[in-house]
Amino acid sequence: MDKIKHITEYDNTNFWDANPQFCIISPFDELHKLKNIDSSKAAWCILLFCETSDKSIFAQFPEDKRKEELSYYYPDMPWNDDIIKRCLEKYPFIAMSAAARSLKEEEDILMRRAVFLRDEYDRAIQERNIALTEKLEKMLKNNGALYDNLEKAMEKFAVEKAKATLRGGRVESLTEQGLL
User: Are 10 and 48 spatial neighbours (Cβ–Cβ below 8 Å)?
Assistant: First the structure.
């Protein structure tokens, strides 16, 4: 079950109007009260930054690129603000299921690892460091097992999503799913 509403309408919907429950959950309550920033846009950036790839195209990017891309939507996004950082840390535990968090963590780790291996491999080649090149090639050989873990997380997430039910065990209506 989706805990967030109007995720596709972030460009013209006030986050707090669409998701009023966040106004009372710490640290989002603090974000909502901030006057020196557009807190609705900041909250949308947090959501789009944290969500899984089925909800946010930004999930396909490494974290630094995600921030860069989201800054086109909200150029003044204060990524280093303490409240923003706490919201980024807490969002997955407030709005995402365990399977979604697991999937997102696997995706993020694999992206960071891929960037690291690429950069280190390029450096090792440039420096003609054979020992480091061999270590990195061994690490690259382990990719299959890591992607198997990602696939398992994706399967768990898909199963959970398929079983999504509402109170009383009922299934979401087409209206609730946003299809009508």
Answer: yes
